[in-house]
Design a protein that fits this description.
Elements: E1 4-15, E2 18-29, E3 33-37, H1 44-51, E4 59-64, E5 67-68, H2 74-80, E6 82-84, H3 85-89, H4 97-105, H5 119-123, H6 126-135, H7 151-164, E7 169-173, H8 181-194, E8 199-203, H9 207-213, E9 216-221, E10 224-229, H10 231-235, H11 238-244, H12 247-254
Parallel strand pairs: 3-8, 3-9, 6-7, 7-8
Antiparallel strand pairs: 1-2, 1-4, 4-5, 9-10
């Protein structure tokens, strides 16, 4: 299980004279929950978009399990097992929760995204879909039309559909964004639960979430790597405190 699952070497992205990601060397250890944090405009989302191939790097390399995937297409890396939470989980609002997860599972039938499959062939997937719903505490919502679900439960469904793709590396982009306290707690516990035997890289603003579940944290500022380490190391780093200035530094302190 040990070793580096994802690595970037001198990853750089420039947009017309503006460097959004600047010479980033990132190593994600297999089995870890690794967070990418930083003030607004630090380049976190751009970095995520480079890793999932929605953007092409200006220079640098991306390695997954030691293999250079810098030139791979988004669908190719998804097939390798690098799955970003929204890639397939912009959930279908007018299907039930169970049907949503079943679509994620269709890949295993070799009928990927063939939405008009007969009910009979899809019902084979019901048992596995129900297992995944149990994993994210959504069993009781199986027959609920997705549009009628509370926001936090929809995010849990996104995680279930992502799990259906059997990711080796899950990329979660601000999984607790826009949530109330209760939902944040539920989704945090959920991430901890589903991380068993998996690797998770997440962009997250909420420091309480990061301090509670992450093995390692990389801090970006103006597109460059500012600091890296455990929560305790990063939160006591003077440069990080300065980058987060004032209010957010207080948040860093308060999450201890």
């Amino acid at each position: 299980m040990s070793g580096v699952i994802l690595e970037t070497k001198h990853l750089t992205k420039e947009f017309k004279g503006f460097t959004a990601v600047n010479d980033v060397n990132l190593k994600v250890q297999r089995g870890h929950i690794h967070a990418l944090i930083g003030p607004n405009g630090a380049g976190k989302t751009t970095c995520f978009n480079l890793l999932t191939k929605f953007l092409v790097p200006t220079s640098g390399q991306i390695l997954f399990n030691g293999k250079d995937i810098t030139a791979a297409k988004p669908a190719q890396i998804a097939r390798m097992g690098v799955i970003r939470s929204f890639q397939i989980s912009a959930v279908f609002p007018h299907l039930t929760v169970l049907q949503n997860v079943r679509i994620g599972l269709q890949r295993q039938l070799g009928t990927s995204f063939n939405f008009w499959q007969s009910e009979r062939s899809l019902s084979k997937l019901n048992d596995r879909a129900m297992q995944l719903l149990a994993e994210v505490d959504l069993t009781e919502f199986a027959d609920t039309i997705t549009v009628d679900m509370p926001y936090g439960r929809k995010r849990a469904l996104e995680i279930a559909t992502t799990l259906a793709m059997e990711p080796e590396l899950m990329l979660l982009d601000e999984p607790t964004q826009g949530m109330g306290h209760e939902d944040v707690h539920r989704v945090t516990e959920l991430i901890k639960k589903v991380s068993a035997g998996r690797t998770i890289l997440m962009v997250e603003h909420n420091m309480k979430v990061v301090s509670g579940i992450c093995d390692k944290i990389s801090v970006l500022q103006r597109g460059a790597m500012l600091a890296e380490g455990t929560y305790a190391e990063v939160s006591s780093n003077p440069q990080v405190m300065e980058a987060y200035m004032g209010t957010e530094a207080a948040v860093l302190e308060g999450a201890h």
